[in-house]
Amino acid sequence: MRFSGVAAALWTSLASATILQNGQVRPNDYPDTTISTISSYNSSWHTYPPSAPELSYKGRWDDKFISWWSAPGLKFGFQADQVAISFGNYTSDGVLVAYRLDGQDWMLTNVTSSTTHLFVTPSTTGYNLTTPANATQTLELRVTNWAYGVQIQCVHVSGGAARLVKIPNYTRTMELIGDSLSAGQYATLEGLSSYSWGLMYGLGNVEFSITAYPGDCLHEGRCYADITVINLGTNDNNTANNVTATEYYNSYIQLINEVHTRWPQSQIIVISLWSGFGQVGNTWQQGAGFLDETQNVVKYFNNGSLNQQGECSSCFVYYFNTTGILQHNDIGPQYHPTDVGHVKLASHLMQYIKLTFGWILEHTGPEVQHDTLYWYVPLAKENDEEDY
Ligand SMILES: *[C@@H]1O[C@H](CO)[C@@H](O)[C@H](O)[C@H]1NC(C)=O
Ligand SMILES: *[C@@H]1O[C@H](CO)[C@@H](O)[C@H](O)[C@H]1NC(C)=O
Ligand SMILES: *[C@@H]1O[C@H](CO)[C@@H](O)[C@H](O)[C@H]1NC(C)=O
Ligand SMILES: *[C@@H]1O[C@H](CO)[C@@H](O)[C@H](O)[C@H]1NC(C)=O
Ligand SMILES: *[C@@H]1O[C@H](CO)[C@@H](O)[C@H](O)[C@H]1NC(C)=O
Ligand SMILES: *[C@@H]1O[C@H](CO)[C@@H](O)[C@H](O)[C@H]1NC(C)=O
Ligand SMILES: *[C@@H]1O[C@H](CO)[C@@H](O)[C@H](O)[C@H]1NC(C)=O
Ligand SMILES: *[C@@H]1O[C@H](CO)[C@@H](O)[C@H](O)[C@H]1NC(C)=O
Ligand SMILES: *[C@@H]1O[C@H](CO)[C@@H](O)[C@H](O)[C@H]1NC(C)=O
Ligand SMILES: *[C@@H]1O[C@H](CO)[C@@H](O)[C@H](O)[C@H]1NC(C)=O
């Protein structure tokens, strides 16, 4: 496989950089959820091992219960008053996780290796709104830093029935194969701000995985695929990586053949490369890396299958044209989409999948992205006053 990867290359160097929002250091003093030991907090815990069947792992995890790549998660139901999770020694120090009780907004906290964190108590927002009281609630946790991982050591519950409850898997499955653009690098909440997340979590009822290195996915067998979305080539289209157009074309065809062999039912969406923007005269123009090659890959699979109207019922490879979705100010100084750019890509892809495959948008209320609720605040006025 000739695809090179910015994401793959950076995996080895930890993502400890300061994140700036419009030149200001982003506040990152998230509430500390650590408890020194669980017995110091409460002596009546019921502890489940990481292999407990009640625990649903989302995205990519290995057999040591270590999370990988972008936005992997853990979700489970519980009937209890307190929920705590102990993280194993393979957890990256300070990794930022998002967690939520049922459909409450995401909360954020940093976790570190060999620590225990208290995520739910009766004072957690939303806890006392559960109806009927003592009904099963869910806790979901997602790793936001795409280059960091956590290791689940055990899950503890106390109070009430003090038990975990298995919740059903989602019924739709997707796989996204990409590079750092898809992993959310340089976005405010990294994986949780990425278009991949916005698309697949945003569609709702989807088991999904965001993979930055396709080879792993193909032999590991924990991938999902009613729909596979591929966004690769931006790195290949960089002189530093010395990949020729022919190599790119051939590698892409090989990758699609591998995906199709593994999941013959999967529909495959090829995302055209937007490749940044350049100033032309006194305006801006979108770049287009490997524009012909990417289209020729799609044609290679569809050639001969089109009827006279240009339609194709047996085709499984689709071209998603990104031209015109992003504008120059949707790309940040590090050549990756801004949060807004990610949201635009996700929204267009959602609509494309709805129109092309008839998928219903099933996520209809709780937050998907976080920290995106901002609006104009007139000076010396409350922001909900209309008469300013
Ligand atoms: C993590 O803990 C396991 C079991 O206690 C031990 O075998 C392993 O060497 C530890 N690994 C690291 C990186 O500390
Ligand atoms: C928490 O995570 C954020 C985002 O990765 C990071 O900037 C910050 O330094 C972390 N804080 C701690 C205390 O680890
Ligand atoms: C839930 O708890 C909050 C904070 O303790 C309290 O203000 C609120 O009245 C409670 N709501 C219900 C429905 O009990
Ligand atoms: C421990 O859990 C029990 C059962 O939920 C509860 O009554 C008690 O208040 C808890 N103790 C602390 C210190 O939270
Ligand atoms: C909820 O569970 C607690 C602890 O088991 C119990 O005291 C309380 O009566 C229960 N409430 C309802 C409405 O069942
Ligand atoms: C749910 O998904 C996981 C991970 O893909 C899989 O191992 C498990 O068998 C699934 N459970 C059911 C009930 O389908
Ligand atoms: C680029 O490719 C050419 C031809 O295959 C090879 O001779 C050269 O060493 C390569 N350069 C790098 C930096 O990989
Ligand atoms: C990138 O793609 C464009 C458009 O296909 C092509 O003109 C250019 O030569 C490519 N550059 C590299 C380094 O692959
Ligand atoms: C499509 O098929 C025709 C006839 O077999 C062939 O000449 C042409 O090169 C093919 N085009 C592509 C893009 O594969
Ligand atoms: C992609 O979209 C642009 C802008 O609408 C259009 O000019 C171009 O022809 C499209 N390319 C393909 C292959 O459909």
UniProtKB/TrEMBL annotation:
<dbReference type="GO" id="GO:0052689">
    <property type="term" value="F:carboxylic ester hydrolase activity"/>
</dbReference>
<keyword id="KW-0732">Signal</keyword>
<feature type="signal peptide">
    <location>
        <begin position="1"/>
        <end position="17"/>
    </location>
</feature>
<dbReference type="InterPro" id="IPR036514">
    <property type="entry name" value="SGNH_hydro_sf"/>
</dbReference>
<dbReference type="InterPro" id="IPR052762">
    <property type="entry name" value="PCW_deacetylase/CE"/>
</dbReference>
<protein>
    <recommendedName>
        <fullName>SGNH hydrolase-type esterase domain-containing protein</fullName>
    </recommendedName>
</protein>
<dbReference type="InterPro" id="IPR037461">
    <property type="entry name" value="CtCE2-like_dom"/>
</dbReference>
